[in-house]
């Protein structure tokens, strides 16, 4: 009996999915890096911090903290983890006041966007929240 042959079934080998182009593109896409689209062979640019808002939320948080938030979000590297991270930072609240007399407002809930820096929560606007995390639309809310 040949002891050098560790493969019990000749002709079969284990799959090395980490080297597949599909898996590599998925990993790079989820971590925000530049990758090549499988179907169109177009290079998709890396995620970047977006434009600052006009209400100065970037100044309230601090530019170095914005970069830290962006890097932390990209290091998660998993789409589901990123969505759960974002959904924990978005808080749904009741509307405080309705200006329509005699009937309830059509808007029953509002979303408050927060970021956590050194265990302190800072409230920011929607545009700043999306820009800090480098996402364009967030559908998991």
Question: TL;DR?
Answer:
By secondary structure, the protein is an alpha+beta fold.
How can the largest sheet be summarized? 3 strands, antiparallel
Beta-strand percentage?
15-25%
Low-confidence stretches: none
* Sequence of strands across the biggest β-sheet: 3-4-5
The gyration radius over C-alpha positions equals 22 Å
State the total count of DSSP E strands.
5
- The helix count comes to 5
How far the N terminus sits from the C terminus, by CA atoms, comes to 60 Å
| Structural class computed from helices and strand pairing | alpha+beta
Total count of domains = 2
Supply the key terms:
141 residues; two-stranded antiparallel sheet; 5 helices; 35% helix; elongated; 2 domains; single chain; alpha+beta
Please outline the helices and strands.
Elements: H1 21-31, E1 35-36, E2 43-44, H2 57-61, H3 63-76, H4 79-89, E3 90-94, E4 109-117, E5 120-124, H5 126-133
Antiparallel strand pairs: 1-2, 3-4, 4-5
Task: Please describe what this structure looks like.
With 141 residues, the protein is of the alpha+beta class. Helices cover 35% and strands 16% of the residues. It contains five helices and five strands; from the N terminus they run αββαααβββα. Strands 3-4-5 form a three-stranded antiparallel beta sheet. Strands 1-2 form a two-stranded antiparallel sheet. Strand 1 and strand 2 form a beta hairpin. The radius of gyration is 22 Å and the shape is elongated.
């Amino acid at each position: 009996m040949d002891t050098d042959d560790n493969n019990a079934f000749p002709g079969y080998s284990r799959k090395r999915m980490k080297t597949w182009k599909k898996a590599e593109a998925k990993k790079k896409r989820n971590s925000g890096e530049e990758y090549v689209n499988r179907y169109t062979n177009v290079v998709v640019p890396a995620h970047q911090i977006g434009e600052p808002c006009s209400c100065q939320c970037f100044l309230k948080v601090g530019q170095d903290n914005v970069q830290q938030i962006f890097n932390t979000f990209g290091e998660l590297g998993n789409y589901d983890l990123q969505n759960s991270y974002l959904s924990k930072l978005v808080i749904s609240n009741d509307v405080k006041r309705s200006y329509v007399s005699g009937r309830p407002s059509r808007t029953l809930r509002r979303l408050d966007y927060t970021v956590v820096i050194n265990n302190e929560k800072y409230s920011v606007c929607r545009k700043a929240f999306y820009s800090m995390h480098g996402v364009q639309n967030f559908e998991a809310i």
